[in-house]
Amino acid sequence: MNLKLKIENPNWKYIRRPHPAFRGGVQYIFTFNNRYQASVVKTKYSYGGEQDLWELAVLKDGALHYDNSVAEGDVRGHLTDKEVNELLREIEQFGDIVEVYEKQYAKGFTYFGIRDVDTKQPLMFPNNDWLMFPDKESAEKVCRLINEKSV
Questions:
Q1: What is the Cα–Cα distance from 39 to 20, expressed in whole angstroms?
Q2: CA distance 9 to 33
Q3: Burial of 143 (0-12, 13-18, 19+ CB in 10 A)
Q4: Can you give the residue ranges of every domain in the chain?
Q5: How far apart are CA 99 and CA 4, in angstroms?
Q6: Which end of the chain is more exposed for a tag (fewer CB within 10 A), N or C?
Q7: Of 110, 151, 106, 108, whose CA–CA distance to 133 is shortest?
Q8: Do residues 49 and 55 touch, judged by C-beta distance below 8 A?
Q9: What confidence tens digit (pLDDT) does each residue in 120-138 have?
């Protein structure tokens, strides 16, 4: 079994270590600047390992993350080196689509809204009311939920 992954991007940050649970296997953990990581493993028990293929799992903030276009609801197995690199590029591009912003309103009242990261346009309800929150924590919670569902 070939335990060396051909990594196409020399700028990717990763660690390579023996698989923590299965002797004779290997695990690569790639860390990207967008809070996502990828665990790429090959053991005789991983999906495709006996065929000398790789298994990949997506992590977000260090925890398994299945709700994204790469994971398709599970780990991905039976991957060639080239397919792993394609999926790593895709994970590297994951990003937030909305962000919290602060706005001063009349008479010193501050509210927090959610806006599109690219256009800076505020999110609005279908009736054209702005999506506003009286505190930053509530806005950040909704923002996180939206961003987690966007990948």
A1: 12
A2: 15
A3: buried
A4: 13-93, 98-149
A5: 39
A6: N
A7: 110
A8: yes
A9: 888 888 887 788 899 999 9
Q: Which has the closest alpha carbon to 77: 104, 125, 103, 40? A: 40
Whole-model pTM: value is 0.69
3-state secondary structure labels for all residues of 51-90: HCCEEEEEEECCEECCCCCCCCCCCEEEECHHHHHHHHHH
Q: For residue 115, what is the enclosing H or E element? A: strand 110-116
CATH 3.40.50 fits 98-149, yes or no: no
CA nearest to 36, candidates 150, 118, 139: 150
Q: Which residues contact residue 72 at a Cβ distance below 8 angstroms, ignoring those fewer than 6 apart? A: none
State the Cα–Cα distance between residues 40 and 27, nearest whole angstrom: 6
Query: How far apart are alpha carbons 111 and 103 in whole angstroms?
Result: 6
- Coil, helix or strand for 39? strand
pLDDT digits (tens, 9 = 90+) for 80-102: 999 999 999 999 988 877 889 99
Q: Distance between CA atoms of 26 and 45, rounded to whole angstroms? A: 11
Amino acid (1-letter code) at residue 129: D
